[in-house]
Amino acid sequence: MGITFRKETFRDDYTFRNSPEHIRRFPFPFNEDAYMYAVNIEPHVVGPKGSVLENLIDVDEHYVAEMQDRALVLAEDPLRCQSLPHMTLAGWDLLELLMEQQALGYPEHFTLERDGDRWRWINRPLGIDDTFTFGDTSTLPYGPMEYITRQSQGDFCILDQRDGNLWMDAGMVTTQADWSLDFDIGMNFFEWHAPVPLAHEKGIFTRALKFLTNIQQGKPARRLNWTMTINPRLDTSPENYHKWGPDRATVTPENVGEKVHLRVELQSFWRLPRSNAIVFPIRCYLIKMDELVTQPKWARRLHRVIRDLPEELATYKGLTRYRPTLVEWLSKLDDGSPTSPGFGPD
Amino acid sequence: MSTGTTKLDVVVSDVVPVNDLVTRFHFRRRDGELLPTFSGGAHVVVEMRDSDRTRLNPYSLMGSPLDTREYTISVRRDDVGRGGSLFMHRQVKPGLEMVISYPVNLFSLDLRAKKHLMLAGGIGITPFMAQTSQLAAAGGNFELHYTCRTASLGTYADVLQQRYGSRVKLYHDDREERIDLDRLLSSQPLGTHLYVCGPAGMINWVRDRAAALGWPSETVHFEHFAAPQPGAPFDVTLAVSGKTIRVGEQQSLLEAMEAAGVDPPYLCRGGVCGQCETNVISSDGKFIHNDHWLSEEDHRSGCKIMPCVSRFDGKSLVLER
Questions:
Q1: Judged by CB atoms within 8 Å, which residues 85-104 of A form the interface with B?
Q2: Domains of chain B by range and CATH?
Q3: What is the largest CA-CA distance in chain A?
Q4: What pLDDT is attached to residue A115?
Q5: What does the pLDDT look like over B234-271, one tens digit per residue?
Q6: Which of A185, B22, B112, B232 gives 20 to 30 Å between its CA and that of A176?
Q7: Which distant-in-sequence residues (6+ apart) come within 8 Å of A159 by Cβ?
Q8: What's the CA gap between B302 and B280, in Å, rounded?
Q9: Would an 8 Å CB–CB cutoff place B39 in contact with chain A?
Q10: Taken in order A26, A27, A32, A37, is the CA torsion positive or negative?
C-alpha cells in the first residue's frame, strides 16, 4: 500500500499539515510535566509499529515535499552541503546506510540492487533509477553524501573521529534550528556546542563526547531534542534569519494554534564502517499547536513545560517573545488534572 | 545504556600456519551472510571457550576491508603468556564454531594525512595489513617500515613486498639492520601522519623521538594493547554487587569480575579504550597501573583503576562495581 505523500510547502503559503495518523505518531519529547537537560541517550532500536521508530531511518508522508524544499534551499545556497576532502569515504558509508535502511523499511518505494560494486538504486517517490559504481564518485551526479541526502529526510552531520574528539567535517544541513554548517564546518564537539547554556556547567558535553566516541558499529543510539518554530518552516537557518526571525513577533492569541509549531529533532548516532566516522542524522518533525492539542494529554503537559521552562533555556530556544501568549493559550486547555506517564498520547 | 559491541556467530573456515610462531585464522559467518564492513586498524575480540573458563582476547583484523566474506587474524604463539594464544594454536581447528565481537577501531587512519608513515615491529604488522589494503585501493600515499627478528619470522614480509614493492622497507634484527629513525622522521613531507604498532619499547622509542623532533602529537598514532600481566593474587570487594572476589595469578581483575557474574563494559581489554574504568571506594595498598587510559594524576590519586590490565598489592580494595 505504501505512504501517500502530501503535496505541501514549508515556505510562502505554508500548506504543511499532519494527517491524523501522523499526529498520533508525532515524537512528543516530554515524558513528564517539566523539562531540563539530560544526556537522554538510548539505544536506537526499532520501536512500535505505527511510531516514528518503526524503522531506524523514518520516511513519512512529508518525504517528497521535504526533498523539494531541500532542493530549493540548495539552489539558493550551495554551502548548506559541504564535505571536506578527507570525508568522501564517509559519504560512501552514509550512502550505503541510507540506501539499505530505506530499501529495508519501505520496499514499495525504494529498491537497492547490488552486484559487487555495481549498484542500482530505485527511488520511486522521486522518480530516480540510477546505476553507479560504489566508491567511484564520477558515476554519480553529485558526491555520495550529497546524492543520498538529497533523497533522505533530515539533516546529516558526518563527524570525523580523531584525537579523542569529533570534528564537524561534512554535512547536509537545510532543516536546522538556527545553526549553520558553513559556520561550524571543521569545528570540534566542544567548539560547536559552545553557545549552549547551562549544559557545560553540568559536564554534559564531556560525558556526551565520551559516549559518542565509543559508539560501536551495529549499535546506533538516539536522543530527542526540541524547540519551537513560528510557521512550519524547515529552513530556520542563521543565513535566512531575516526571513523567519521577524515571524516571532507575529504571534497573537488568535493565531497561536496555526502559527506556533513544536519542532522535535530525532537525533541518532551511527558508527560508519569504512571511515570510522560518526554520522549524526537530525530528523526534524513539526506539529502545529492546533494539531498537537487534539491529544489532551499533550496539551496539558506542554502547557506546564513551557510555563516552567528556565529563562535561559527559553531565551536559547528563541521563545521569549511569544511565550506569554503561548502559555496563556495553552492554559485554557489545562484543567490541572494529572498526566499519564510516558511520551505517547492517551 | 550499556556499551560494548554486538556479537557475531562465526565458524573457523581455515587455519594456516604462517611461520614457526604465527598462525592465521579465517572466520566466516555461520549463516553464510557477509560480515560487517570494517576500517583498517580495527580489531575483534575473540571468545575462547577453554574448558571452564572464557578467554576474551583482541586481535587486529588483517584482511582487506573491501572483502567481507571472511575475517582473518594472525596470532603469535606466546609460550609463557596467559594461554590465549596457546589455546588458539592448539584447540582451534577448521569447522569450530566461535563467537567474535563486531569490529572496533581504536587505531584509525587519519584520512586527512597527505602521507601515512607506518612503523611495525613483529606481530604489530597485522593492523597495517588491513590499512595498506585500504589505502592501496584508494590510491593513498603510504610507506611501511617493518622490523622483524629474522627473515623467516618476518610475518607477511614477502606478501607485503610483493604487493607494494619499494613502499615496504624491511629491517632484520639478526642482520643488525636498524631503522635510522631520526633521519626517517626528519625527512617526511608536511602533512605526514605517523603510525606505530609493535612492542611497548618500540612504541615508546618512536613516540619519544617524534616528540623530540617536533611532530605534533595529533599526527602520531599508536596501537598499544597491553596483554594483562600476571601477578600475585589479590582480593577485591565489589561494593555495588555486594561480592568479594579473588583475582588469580593468571587472571585479570576484569576477568575475575566477569567470572563472578559482574560485567563491566569493555572494548579493547588492553588498557586503551577507557570503557571499563572503575572508581575506587577505598584502598589500603599499592596499585599496579598498566593502562594507557588514565592520566598520571589519576594513577597517583588511587581513585580509579582499569580492571582490564591493572592490579593491586595490599590489604584491601573496594571498588564501585
A1: 85-87, 89, 93, 96
A2: 7-105 (2.40.30.10), 115-223 (3.40.50.80), 234-319 (3.10.20.30)
A3: 62
A4: 92
A5: 999 999 999 999 999 888 999 999 999 999 988 888 88
A6: B112
A7: A166, A167, A168, A169, A189, A212, A277, A278, A279, A280
A8: 7
A9: yes
A10: negative
Query: Which cell goes with A53?
Result: 521508530
**Closest chain B residue to A88 measured between Cα atoms?**
B111
Copy the grid coordinates of residue B262: 559482574
> d(Cα A231, Cα A259) in Å, to the nearest integer?
5
Return the active site residues of A.
223
Contacts of B73 (CB under 8 A, 6+ apart): B24, B25, B27, B44, B46, B59, B60, B61, B62, B126
What letter does residue A338 receive in the DSSP assignment? -
CA separation for the pair A115, A118 (Å, rounded): 5
| Residues of chain A contacting residue B275, judged by C-beta atoms under 8 Å apart | 214
Tell me the average pLDDT of chain A. Answer: 94
Would strands A81-83 and A165-172 be described as parallel, antiparallel, or unpaired?
antiparallel
Beginning with the edge strand found earlier in the chain, give each strand of the sheet holding B234-238 in spatial order.
B243-247, B234-238, B311-319, B278-288, B304-305
Of B39, B218, B267, the CB nearest to A274: B39
DSSP B5: -
Selection from A220, A333, A319 nearest residue A273 by Cα: A220
B182 and B107 in contact (C-beta within 8 Å)?
Answer: no
Give the pLDDT score at B275: 86
- For residues B125 and B76, give the distance between their C-alpha atoms in angstroms, rounded to a whole number: 11
Say whether A216 and B108 touch across the interface (CB within 8 A).
Answer: no
Residues of B in contact with A219 (CB under 8 A): 5-6, 102
Q: Which residues, listed in sequence order, are joined to residue A14 by a DSSP beta bridge?
A: none
- CB within 8 Å: B42 and A275: no
Taking only the tens place, the pLDDT of each residue in A269-311 is 999 999 999 999 999 999 999 999 999 999 999 999 999 999 9
CA angle A298, A301, A303 (to 5 degrees): 105
Supply the pTM of this predicted model. Answer: 0.88
> What is the rounded average pLDDT of the residues A36-40?
70
